[in-house]
Amino acid sequence: MRIRTRRSAAVGITLLTALALLPSVGAGAAPRDARPSGGGLHATIRYTEYGIPHILAEDYANLGFGTGWAQAADQVCTLADGYLTVRGERSRHFGPDASPGSALSSASTNLGSDLYFRGVREAGTVEKLLAQPAPAGPGRRTKELMRGFAAGYNAWLKQNRITDPACAKADWVRPISALDVARQGFAVQVLGGQGRGIDGITAAAPPTAPPSGATPREDAPDPRRTAKAARELFSAQNADMGSNAVAFSGVTTANGKGLLLGNPHYPWQGGRRFWQSQQTIPGELNVSGASLLGTSVVNIGFNKDVAWSHTVATGVTLNLHQLTLDPADPTAYLVDGKSRKMMKRTVTVPVKGGAPVTRTQWWTRYGPVVTGLGAQLPLPWSSTTAYALNDPNAVNLRGSDTDLGFGTARSTAGILKSLRETQGLPWVNTVAADRHGHSLLSQSQVLPHITDDLAQRCSTPLGKVTYPASGVAVLDGSRGACALGSDKDAVQPGIFGPSRMPTLKDAPYAENSNDSAWLTNADQPITGYERIFGTIGTQRSMRTRGAVEDVAAMAEKGDLTVRDLQRQQFANRVPAADLAAADAAKACAALPGGTATGSDGKAVDVSKACNALAHWDHRMDSDSRGALLFDRFWRKLTAAVPNAQLWKVPFTAADPVRTPNTLDTALPGFRTALADAVTELTAAGIAVDAPLGDNQYVVRNGKRIPVSGGTESLGVWNKVEADWDKAKGYTEVVHGSSHIQAVGWNSGRCPEARTLLSYSQSANPNSPHYSDQTSLYGKERWVTSRFCEKDVLGDPELEVVRVRERR
């Protein structure tokens, strides 16, 4: 239960009397999977506005307990669904053909998901990683947090009734073990590697022998088509996760201290949502921020001295090895002329309403055999060739150690120290600022150690095309000399060490919007890194161009405060419109008879659209008129016309922020896109100058909440991707701005922070915190963070919950 208390009450600031704890998991021991965790753990949870818990505990196991309890209270159904996934039990409950969702993998069906995760489970993959001593494996604090998290989740299940209709009576909501928590962490670590290829891993099968006398069919992938598919697969333009983040150094701020604005773009539903909390162990840890669901640490956030956020990085976290198969056996491959047998991993999955399904997966010294990275990138297994996927994050369970290091850091130097010592982040950049006035960007991520020289020497014909185009290396697996290299400062073989990571320290601003590290600061480009980290001197996305324009202007203006960060978050400026809208309006007005021909060959009256474009404010505010028209027009135009043909002035690396520019309105695709956009709006009953918020909104408990922001191709900082309903316009948001934080410092001990969780704390429609912050987001209002004790106690609606296991 929750205990409401007044400010004057003693609300349990001193910790509860310590209870006897179960024996801790040793640094080299893996938690047992035999039974759910338990052992007399306890914590105090103080809830402030919007259901944000401030978790107070005496050690890491008890802190994990309070975190697991509080997450279960808000997100029990989403968490339980994730544990069902990593146990490989979705087909048993939901059938084999349903979609598992994209939260923990790219699997297209429950069966594919179960085959992969059951394979991980039966191979003891996570247990082996837990057993490795730090720094190669996770440290004691992380293991204690996982143990406590599982116990807290289980205690909440035992002591409370589930009211979320998504799983209120579900038989698949069950107690968990610390190993389940670790397995979910593993799934997150490999999202950019094995997680991309699950269908190709679980469906891989050796070729069958052709009929007697027939010639074997060899379907080698087309290099150019594969390179194009790889480039699209790893492009931020097509990702369901992204982010903006900027750190300002003290030379730009009003008081000489640093500032940080973090704006991650993540899914609004499912297991990759963020959840807010403050975690405190007196004298040891005090950190506030957001955690991915199921994570027992704060992933992005701040403490009294430093703040950080992450952006999805361009580093390619996997590579392929092209195998030359033994002519006598398609399940054996040659290395330096010697035949090596593939390893079989036979997995059986129980299926609802049917017989269990048994499949065999094939593994090599390089990793699993894979027959594709999505449907667009086939890698056929023939009688002569197969492909193996190398993912160094499949042996990396150190991410939480990195996060704990951030939580106890006292400066950006401390952030770098944690990155250097733990090397746990799989697929993100880190952007940070501190109260001392320092700024930082570091692309410190776990990547295959593939240098441009190695790629030059060892790429197969396919790799010679895919590596320059996308950073996906395809190496000759038949030569031992083509094995991945290692750095002396790397904690695991086959990855780059900290000294090789693109890093910028103490620049006036350090910004990233999911392009490579090159243009972190337009005046101090970062160069000298290998292609696998990202490109150098190439065209930036519209979002990066707009972001660099904005933050460079802010830095030049100077005297920045947290309020400036808040304004930037909801400026909703459309960089694409500043480049193209005026020319589009003029060209529209010049069309003969005010008509344009659509893709269906019909003439469309676009005269009202010309006027709407001319008078639009070039913003994606809820009350902006003409914004929806330009959005639908721009989506259609950029989908139909290659980027190289769109602009009259081409890209130049000498002016990467302002080029390319000048829309070529003479292109036939221009008139077609304009006509189709008008037709689309008319069919939906939407006026071309309708306010954006009338048709871009979410509905929560029957209430419509208008949402500002715009899509990737428009370049809007406040990114929003929503489903288009041809009868209503945009409705449900799929992904976009999520846990937003604007953090600075003043002369006091407490950080000055404003936060906002766009989709709110709870997925339960019966929770008071199902849509409260979503309403704030729609109104572009913020939550003032309560970090220091006086601020927590100062909340007039403070609620205190003392939670413990019941034996």
Keywords:
807 residues, eight-stranded antiparallel β-sheet, 22% strand
Explain how this protein is built:
The protein has 807 residues and is α+β, with helices and mostly antiparallel strands. 29% of the residues lie in helices and 22% in strands. The strands form 7 sheets. Strands 1-33-2-3-6-7-8-9-17-18-20 form an 11-stranded mixed beta sheet, with helices on one face. Strands 4, 5, 21, 28, 29, 30, 31 and 32 form an 8-stranded antiparallel beta sheet that branches. Strands 10, 11, 12, 16 and 19 form a 5-stranded mixed beta sheet that branches. A hairpin with a 3-residue loop joins strand 8 (300-302) and strand 9. Helix 8 packs parallel to helix 12.
Radius of gyration: 27 Å
Strand neighbour order, sheet with most strands: 1-33-2-3-6-7-8-9-17-18-20
Percent of residues in beta strands = 15-25%
Return the average pLDDT rounded to an integer: 93
Largest sheet, strands/sense/barrel: 11 strands, mixed
Low-confidence stretches: 1-35
* Strands, count: 33
Using the alpha-carbon principal axes, give the shape: globular
Terminus-to-terminus distance: 17 Å
Which structural class is indicated by helix and strand composition? alpha+beta
Binned, the helix content reads 25-40%
Number of H- or I-type helical stretches: 21
Region (Disordered): 203-225
Keywords: Hydrolase, Signal, Zymogen
Biased composition (Low complexity): 203-215
Biased composition (Basic and acidic residues): 216-225
